């Protein structure tokens, strides 16, 4: 029997999250289900822990596969490996540091099935992990886009007052715990079997996929009844505490995203917002974060591949992105 959904977990040095992550996946009410864990050459004991804890899934009757890559291939490539190794019509990209409620996937499947043929992805209401005595804060309730070509998670770090309780169409879905339709992924793929763009390696790859989905007329849905918790470390305000590799990819990918998707008209319409940000970013890197300077050289060195992918993406575009700039959501 074809599984209703596949859970794909990509990791690098995530040993401390393995047991709790697999326990939450085993408790999911969705059946039939399949799970693939892709570990990118972790230098801790992630793969060993996954093997030791896989009994949780076996006891729940869930088919499971561990793919242990010899090196850190990045989140995008790991997701592509998982998608190619599964058959379910829906795949859930899951971070190991996210904990799903037992009905999380069922709630998302219910939302996309009720929406119809143009449902391409769905995400739920994610909360941060709270310490004792601390008030709950939101992590992500879908993604939105602003004129400076920045993408944000709705409600990120806001105290939880019960906001964002209405289902909606949103611009994108965080890779921490979001459902993607295989038909939509095949439609927007940048190449055979390449659904997430591997030039991104890690970070912003979920946003870039959202651009392609929107440009092809696929709806991304937010379902507030689907609840999860997520421990998020990489945030703009924590940039100085993040690794050189993370900062390199986040800088490189912000320009890569625009190189793929920004039109000439949009370039001029958004220039008053993008130009100051670009100047400040370059100044910051030059003065405070010189380890990220190679990002500019990488973009120049890979310009041929970037332009080829831009041509493919732009030629396939059927819908404009303009309605999404500074619109947090639209009604379902």
> What is the mean predicted local confidence, pLDDT?
94
**Helical percentage:** 25-40%
Tell me the fraction of residues in β-strands, as a range. Answer: 15-25%
Structural class call reads alpha/beta
Give start-end ranges of low-pLDDT stretches.
Answer: none
Our Rg estimate from Cα atoms comes to 19 Å
The total count of helices amounts to 11
Number of strands: 13
Query: In one word, what is the shape?
Result: globular
Q: Report, as a whole number of angstroms, the end-to-end distance.
A: 31 Å
Major β-sheet profile: 11 strands, mixed
Descriptive account of the structure:
This protein has 332 residues and is α/β, with parallel strands linked by helices. Helix content is 38%, strand content 21%. The protein is built from 11 helices and 13 strands. Strands 1, 2, 3, 4, 5, 6, 7, 10, 11, 12 and 13 form an 11-stranded mixed sheet that branches. The protein has a two-stranded antiparallel sheet with strand order 8-9. Strand 1 (5-11), helix 1 (18-26) and strand 2 form a beta-alpha-beta unit. Helix 8 (244-261) packs across helix 11 (303-316). The longest helix is centred in the C-terminal third of the chain and has 25 residues, at 264-288. It starts with a strand and ends with a strand.
């Amino acid at each position: 029997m074809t599984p209703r959904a596949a859970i794909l977990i990509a990791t690098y040095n995530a040993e401390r999250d393995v047991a709790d992550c697999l326990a939450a996946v085993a408790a999911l009410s969705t059946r039939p289900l399949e799970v693939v864990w892709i570990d990118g050459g972790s230098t801790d004991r992630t793969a060993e822990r996954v093997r030791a804890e896989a009994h949780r899934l076996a006891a729940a009757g869930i088919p499971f596969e561990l793919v242990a890559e010899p090196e850190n291939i990045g989140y995008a490539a790991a997701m592509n490996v998982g998608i190619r190794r599964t058959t379910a019509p829906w795949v859930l990209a899951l971070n190991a540091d996210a904990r799903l409620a037992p009905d999380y996937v069922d709630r998302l499947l219910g939302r996309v099935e009720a929406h119809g043929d143009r449902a391409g992805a769905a995400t739920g209401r994610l909360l941060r992990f709270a310490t004792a005595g601390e008030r709950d804060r939101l992590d992500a309730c879908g993604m939105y886009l602003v004129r400076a070509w920045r993408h944000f998670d709705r409600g990120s770090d806001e105290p939880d007052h019960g906001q964002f309780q209405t289902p909606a169409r949103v611009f994108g879905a965080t890779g921490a715990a979001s459902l993607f339709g295989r038909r939509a992924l095949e439609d927007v793929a940048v190449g055979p079997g390449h659904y997430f763009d591997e030039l991104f390696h890690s970070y912003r790859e979920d946003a870039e996929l959202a651009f392609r989905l929107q440009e092809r007329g696929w709806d991304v849905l937010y379902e507030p009844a689907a609840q999860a918790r997520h421990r998020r470390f990489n945030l703009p305000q924590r940039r100085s505490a993040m690794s050189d590799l993370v900062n390199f990819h986040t800088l490189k990918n912000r320009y890569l995203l625009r190189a793929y998707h920004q039109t000439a008209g949009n370039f001029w319409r958004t220039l008053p917002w993008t130009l100051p940000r670009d100047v400040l970013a370059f100044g910051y890197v030059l003065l405070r974060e010189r380890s990220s300077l190679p990002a500019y050289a990488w973009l120049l060195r890979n310009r041929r591949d970037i332009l080829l992918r831009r041509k493919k993406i732009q030629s396939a575009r059927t819908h404009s992105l303009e309605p999404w700039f500074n619109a947090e959501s639209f009604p379902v």
